[in-house]
């Protein structure tokens, strides 16, 4: 074949692009756990292509778990917009928020405070909901509105906020029924 001759792909051919292996989470995001050694020159384009795919799939948060032996990939991830979330003795967790909306990925904490709101109206009817996300999604289970208290947020304000977010209903905080 001479230098002027080229192999052309037919117009209707789709080129397969390799992506990072990920697992969908219960909140519309993905988790990537890098387990095999990888050169940063190979990782960077895989990460870029994967983010593009996740954006097309309308994913939200990306959690990238890098074991300590894969620290060579941190710079490539940070250049793509990832930020540090937390570190443990044997891994580093980086996160990336895809949508052009406020980042709702939870901050790392030494603990997490959850609330469940018991709401009763003047007719003594109790408010229950079905989850749109989470482990009870699509199961037909009815439950109290629940959620996680944001860092620095008052627990009473969190209960009111979670009910409003999940149901659109304005409530008034009266008392703590239980704490565990």
From TrEMBL:
PANTHER family: NUDIX HYDROLASE 5-RELATED, NUDIX HYDROLASE RELATED
The name this protein goes by in its record: Nudix hydrolase 2
Top-rank taxon, per record: Eukaryota
Entry's Gene Ontology molecular function annotations: ADP-ribose diphosphatase activity; NAD binding; NADH pyrophosphatase activity
Coiled-coil annotated spans: none
Lineage: Eukaryota, Viridiplantae, Streptophyta, Embryophyta, Tracheophyta
Keyword Hydrolase: yes
Family: Belongs to the Nudix hydrolase family.
PROSITE patterns noted in UniProt: NUDIX, NUDIX_BOX
InterPro entries documented for this protein: Nudix_hydrolase (IPR020476), NUDIX_hydrolase-like_dom_sf (IPR015797), Nudix_hydrolase6-like (IPR003293), NUDIX_hydrolase_CS (IPR020084), NUDIX_hydrolase_dom (IPR000086), Pre-Nudix (IPR040618)
Domain Nudix hydrolase: from-to ranges: 110-180
Keywords of this entry: Hydrolase
């Amino acid at each position: 074949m001479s230098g002027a001759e080229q192999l052309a792909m037919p117009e209707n051919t789709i080129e397969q692009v390799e992506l990072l292996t990920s697992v969908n989470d219960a909140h519309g995001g993905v988790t990537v756990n890098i387990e095999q050694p990888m050169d940063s020159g190979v990782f960077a384009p895989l990460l870029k292509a994967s983010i593009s795919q996740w954006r097309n799939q309308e994913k939200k948060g990306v959690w990238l778990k890098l074991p300590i032996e894969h620290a060579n990939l941190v710079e490539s991830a940070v250049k793509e917009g990832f930020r540090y979330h937390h570190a443990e003795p044997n891994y580093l967790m980086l996160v990336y928020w895809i949508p052009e909306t406020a980042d709702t990925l939870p901050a790392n904490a030494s603990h997490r405070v959850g609330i469940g709101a018991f709401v009763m109206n003047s007719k003594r009817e109790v408010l229950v909901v079905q989850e749109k996300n989470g482990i009870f999604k699509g199961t037909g289970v009815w439950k109290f509105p629940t959620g996680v208290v944001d860092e620095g947020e008052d627990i009473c304000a969190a209960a009111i906020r979670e009910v409003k977010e999940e149901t659109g209903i304005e409530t008034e905080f009266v008392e703590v029924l239980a704490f565990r």
